[in-house]
UniProtKB/TrEMBL annotation:
Protein name as catalogued: GntR family transcriptional regulator
Tree of life domain: Bacteria
Length: 104
């Protein structure tokens, strides 16, 4: 018997599954470390906005939304509710779509 026949078949990933693979819940965020002190307030706001946009983009990609055109504000806010973060602003929703566009 060939060695390839003895290997177990891997579980389908999002890219090989016939339908969307559900998010693994419950979502457990990584441990947070304190941000560096002494920066302007605008830096902290934009930093946290970028982190939130990345989390939302990953959640959307995991749920089967691959194109920025599919990610309307309502879809992004539903993903935020699903992973347990505050609803994003219109600016953050725009940033999520931009991240999805540049990841291709």
């Amino acid at each position: 018997m060939p060695a390839a026949a003895l290997k177990p078949k891997p579980l389908p990933t999002q890219s090989t599954a016939r339908r969307a693979v559900q998010l693994d819940l419950p979502y457990a965020p990584v441990l947070k470390s304190p941000l560096p002190a002494g920066r302007p307030r605008e830096w902290y706001i934009s930093h946290n906005r970028r982190l939130k946009a990345m989390r939302l983009a990953i959640a959307l990609l995991d749920s089967g939304v691959f194109l920025p055109g599919q990610a309307r504000n309502e879809t992004i806010r539903d993903a935020a509710r699903l992973i347990g973060v505050h609803p994003p602003s219109d600016t953050t929703c725009h940033m999520v779509r931009a991240l999805m566009k540049y990841s291709r």
